[in-house]
Write a structure and sequence with these properties.
homotetramer, about 350 residues, alpha/beta, Rossmann fold, Dihydrodipicolinate Reductase, domain 2, 2 domains, 7-stranded mixed β-sheet, 6-stranded parallel β-sheet, globular
Chain lengths: ~350, ~350, ~350, ~350
Amino acid sequence: MLSGEKIRVGIFGGSGYGGSELLRILLFHPRVEVTLVTANEHAGKAVAEVHRNLHGLTELRFEKTPEDFEGLNDVDCVFLALPHGQALEIVPRLPSGVKVVDLSGDFRLRDAEQFKEHYGREHTATELQREFVYGLTEINREEIKRARLVSNPGCFATATLLGLAPLAAAGAIKGRVVVDAKTGSSGSGAKPAANTHHPQRANSFYAYKPFTHQHVPEIEQTLGDVSAAHDWANELVFMTHSLPVSRGIFASIYAEVDEGGRMSADDLSALYSDFYRGSFFVRLVKGSPDINWVKTTNFCDIGFAARGRQIAVFSAIDNLVKGAAGQAVQNMNLMFGLDEKTGLMLVGGNP
Amino acid sequence: MLSGEKIRVGIFGGSGYGGSELLRILLFHPRVEVTLVTANEHAGKAVAEVHRNLHGLTELRFEKTPEDFEGLNDVDCVFLALPHGQALEIVPRLPSGVKVVDLSGDFRLRDAEQFKEHYGREHTATELQREFVYGLTEINREEIKRARLVSNPGCFATATLLGLAPLAAAGAIKGRVVVDAKTGSSGSGAKPAANTHHPQRANSFYAYKPFTHQHVPEIEQTLGDVSAAHDWANELVFMTHSLPVSRGIFASIYAEVDEGGRMSADDLSALYSDFYRGSFFVRLVKGSPDINWVKTTNFCDIGFAARGRQIAVFSAIDNLVKGAAGQAVQNMNLMFGLDEKTGLMLVGGNP
Amino acid sequence: MLSGEKIRVGIFGGSGYGGSELLRILLFHPRVEVTLVTANEHAGKAVAEVHRNLHGLTELRFEKTPEDFEGLNDVDCVFLALPHGQALEIVPRLPSGVKVVDLSGDFRLRDAEQFKEHYGREHTATELQREFVYGLTEINREEIKRARLVSNPGCFATATLLGLAPLAAAGAIKGRVVVDAKTGSSGSGAKPAANTHHPQRANSFYAYKPFTHQHVPEIEQTLGDVSAAHDWANELVFMTHSLPVSRGIFASIYAEVDEGGRMSADDLSALYSDFYRGSFFVRLVKGSPDINWVKTTNFCDIGFAARGRQIAVFSAIDNLVKGAAGQAVQNMNLMFGLDEKTGLMLVGGNP
Amino acid sequence: MLSGEKIRVGIFGGSGYGGSELLRILLFHPRVEVTLVTANEHAGKAVAEVHRNLHGLTELRFEKTPEDFEGLNDVDCVFLALPHGQALEIVPRLPSGVKVVDLSGDFRLRDAEQFKEHYGREHTATELQREFVYGLTEINREEIKRARLVSNPGCFATATLLGLAPLAAAGAIKGRVVVDAKTGSSGSGAKPAANTHHPQRANSFYAYKPFTHQHVPEIEQTLGDVSAAHDWANELVFMTHSLPVSRGIFASIYAEVDEGGRMSADDLSALYSDFYRGSFFVRLVKGSPDINWVKTTNFCDIGFAARGRQIAVFSAIDNLVKGAAGQAVQNMNLMFGLDEKTGLMLVGGNP
């Protein structure tokens, strides 16, 4: 990009929380101009009427998904924040010069069988699939810089992988790894549903989709890339729970080091510090992180504990930012040669 | 009732929060046997599967609304916890020996025009309407004892009227009365909706239905009964707001005493203490009540403040108990000659 | 006990949440008369002024801890709800005819060294310790019936042990067991502190006391009693986290069955159903339990999941009821020959 | 200021929520360099260790309050975010070239008697008092531009005055005005206390300091400036309540228009639109505002309702931003000739 030139961005699916957070970030990104945002059910309405946090901050209006995509020739980058299955239809039709960041699960899995099993449909664009880079920025930064098509990771996958990758890469652990993950209610999307009905959710905590969350295969796939030695398909135990807060994912990761190979919390911190050198958005903390300190930001806070051969890694993100829209913009920055922090200095409040 | 004999109770509309709380109370009421509970969308399902708080506590199953009501001859009392408009259809068809407590707005208003204006339909049972007693227990206790048909007050109306009636009855105030009322999210019912979507509701506070809430006319009607001297239609300002809690209504009531007629908080407390002598479920507190101390209970806590000619009365209830199911059972107790506290010693927790 | 006779009860430490919940239950227990409740900092004050949920429900006043314990001869049962370390001083001085339920950690551990390590003080009553029965009702019911002295389990220990004991007893699991436990804020007590400061806690989730919570040794001790075959000191991984709700503990328990020994969720349910036959307060649920459905009650809800050799057990309680005051009363009931449910039909609300 | 030059800023009292939010804003303000931040109890500690939202974002450390203020000669602007009473001591000792924004109540009231009554101490700097401008930006913008000393309004005063000033200025209302105001828990500060103890606060709502909140006199004083015709001391009824959220103030304002002088919600909107022309941070909304849409931002959202002669104005702010730190920076911007929006494009999230 020429310095000062703007990236012309289109957002498909601007009415959900992913789209909403993309708008919160991109409308104030110094190098971006949002030229299109679609939401079929709100076509014609002002964006600021639907996302009332943006009242007074934008004149943009929602549009229908275009019938043909010729007009997208003057768009530089498209974000897809659509329900699973729609990106499969759209990406093949996009002009080949347009870069794409897809926030859905459509292009995360390389194995078409696994895709079918977890998403309940045939993968109809397996050739394109090969071109997609998995957009876990801190792990695949160099590939992302060169990519035209990036598949943004799931929120649970982001928290889990950032917490587990350094340990896996170091070959420091053996046997079963247990990941107990918890998410805030915005993870269920902007549409009202029984599990996000306030009177019930406000005082609740429960497990859901036990062992079968659709983020499991992308976690296993990425861990396999990082460390082929481990039998992740059998050794990863992953469980999702619902927290009574709006935002935040917290993953508690339990592993065991080899006999004789003890690691203290400080050892772990040193290992992760090396691994994440140069990664501004991963912050290592003393003791436990807290979702309160990452809310509304693109940070992933990671902390450690150890006793004997047992180790625990705690990872906290905002599910809508580092777990979705923030990481998507971080990836766009890299794809266009910008500093990955550009437009992402979202500072959280205290309290 | 013969001592020891059980009141056979039928509940129409057992799947909403009103029905749910009726079940929580009536299934453990020492003088009640629940013989029927309807919920068309759950017909055949175990009650405890729908209301999971009751798991292990009842074998009862939901039934469809009966096609004819002959079978209800062996029911002593029917509670109607249905959407507005349905009691209008059902009550006229009930056997004349059955006592009724209706929790909807169908029979609260004596004026058919007002009913039409606020509920958007013709009143089709105006003759029956005359037989209904407005079930604000502490105000209409003697009429309720003799009633066959009782119309249970709205939740906002209960909090407001219990807070305002003694002042109105004493003729102590003049001019405009402002009622700023706030409700928890369960007041919107058990069906998920945009305004009770957890991610949004959890950090929100806002006003809604400004000046036009459907409880306004029943408040004005009852205040008129208590004190015809006041021009309530012009002098009552009533506003509803949404609180980010599951349960609770808090009404802040602002009034002005006559020139020369100052009342301190202690004077107010003495006045209310007189008025509510013998009313176990109204508790007078020092300073402000708190919805936290009445949640899950049938209490209405009332507190006072005064400065110069300005006075404030604060009234707090659980919207589903004193504001709905609890008061309904309190009324049933009276209608069957029982102590009004029977089955209603629901003690709230701390915290 | 003669039928109809009342158990005269004294409560030491009535100002904290444990004491508060004991009062909520015991004041309405049909076979109990509370004759004494102490709280040195509130001596002379009305109980209902401190615990405002009890306003209008009791005339009882807090007293100072008696200087000598002669007067306790006409007390049948003493509950100790005091900070750790105080029961050590008091129990030896109590008249020998008085039965005791201690809610602190003072008499839970048989090993004086472990006590010193986790509670930071010498155990000064090791002889008495031998007489104490660990009051996990569903596991030690028969011993509790015969006991004069009962040590009530910790809240985390209760949730964890009820979730894990059947599996341990069946010898069905091998290797490491991971327990990821989460508690509501009332677990930190009634005194304001940084970790329960509302602005911070309301949107937070974090781990604390990693691997070192003081409930770990009582969990290991009890699991050892249930199944000596397992090396619990090395194979139990226990982690505590903070939830942004007032009440509730949720334990996610991860284990692995022997090769060849797969168990489905239904198998697990059948195993637990056998184990908890006759245990009214343990409820087995489909899928996951939810703290929302046990809040304010004495229930422990347990659910299951399985995939391959991996199994997960989920256990949910109210930390102040089944995790403290409720279980204490359940134990008292047994110690005095009553049905364990007496006074404990605390039905939770929906929502 | 020369374009590009930085304002050197010192913050006194950086450990509370006011100081914390000042840091969140000023550390990223393009025209500010924070050169000093004091917090006696944390002297020497890293700011990011105390305010964990700032982890990784600043190397700044807390210092003790300087013994003499000579060194402050190279500071351009001082923010005082100290408990009431301390600014009284500090401001007279500051070098005369330093500009000051005081966030406490020390210099808000022109009447020393009123100050003594509400703050419980003598005003010891009445001469300086005269030089202070009341920093309600949208009302006193021109005076603030010329001021050296600015006294930042209280949070309740900001929400109330922005909601009421246009109406008062228009002379459109008569008689009593009732303001029912509600605040989130961060309004009570960063120190744990009984009223912000999470287990209690999480499900509570109550009134406090009835009629006597210390923000009442500054509201009356400012309304008197705007409209001397109204007898505010007798006609303003102001009540504060506690909301179970971290952030946000919502003021419901009830007034009555002259007979014959009816105003619709649209009329009100037009009046306010005129009044706030050019005021970016006041946003007029349809219906009711919601604290959810202003949280973490410097916006004040205002909405309207009307029925007959009754009108209601609703005003929502973030108590720590527009109600404290944000408005303080907005004032600093004006005092140094900058666009008032500089560094204040804090965009709130959805949800």
